[in-house]
Structure of Quinone oxidoreductase:
Amino acid sequence: MTDAIVVHQTGGPEALRSEDWRVGSPGPGQVRILQTAIGVNFIDTYQRSGLYPIKTPFVPGNEGVGTVVEMGEGVEELAIGDRVAYQSVIGAYSRERLLSADRAIPVPDGLDDRQVAAMMLKGMTAYYLLFKTWPLASSETLLFHAAAGGVGLIACQWAKSLGARVIGTVGSKDKEELALANGCDAVINYREEDFAERVREFTEGRGVDVVYDGVGKATFEKSLDCLRPRGLMVSFGNASGVVSVPDLGILARKGSLYVTRPTSAHYFPGRKELLEGANALFDAVRSGAVNISVNHTYRLEEAGEAHRALEARETTGSVVLVP
């Protein structure tokens, strides 16, 4: 048995219950890891609330880092004592867990455990957004919503290191200053300004090449007004609600626009793609191109408080749980 956070019935943050959870021994192709840090992400709140249905009971959480303490049959690439991380594998909110060895990513020296836990899912998301969904060129301009959030801080720094012009949106003065210090050339406070009008001003009427939007319903349609003709709208999250596009003709009227809704499952289908993205992320962090901001740390049993803060938009950077 191990300490874990369990959801028996989906709902609000109160649905996260601290209790003993049976882990068991690893089966063929699996490892058991003792976790040292666990990342908290919006997808965790979607799964907890039932927006993304999962059979109950379940242990939420999708990223973490720890040490291999037991291996099942057939595991050859890892050894007892190896430090490994993972992303997009549910079951993270636990002191110990089982993990398929082909999803375990070796962690290089020189990276702090909390830093690693904070960057795997968000950093890998930034990787596929900038390098795969829309391979960003140095001559291009982008708009990134929630630029002071976990994904936003990583993606904006990374995009700036590639030579792109970065425009971000935030919801407060403090977040504006944070975004400017982390890759943004210009920042718009969407609570005080019309971000579509401001984007047109910043781009002298042209519009941006690509919009990256993890906010969803509240920003989607106006974001289309920020794009140049044949630009791409990347909707990768729905923190404010699910996006609905009942009239595809709006894309034609606003400039023959493209829209995509990517997920990591399709960008990291196998170990080769997974390690390619992880190694690019590790290199960006170790080179100093990307700084990982772990601004909020909670104990594992405080997972409900972490969810409340995240959903209330009270956080900046990354949120981490420590078992």
In short: The chain has a mean pLDDT of 95. The chain has two domains: 2-120+268-322, 138-261. Residues 138-261 form a domain with the Rossmann fold fold (CATH 3.40.50.720).
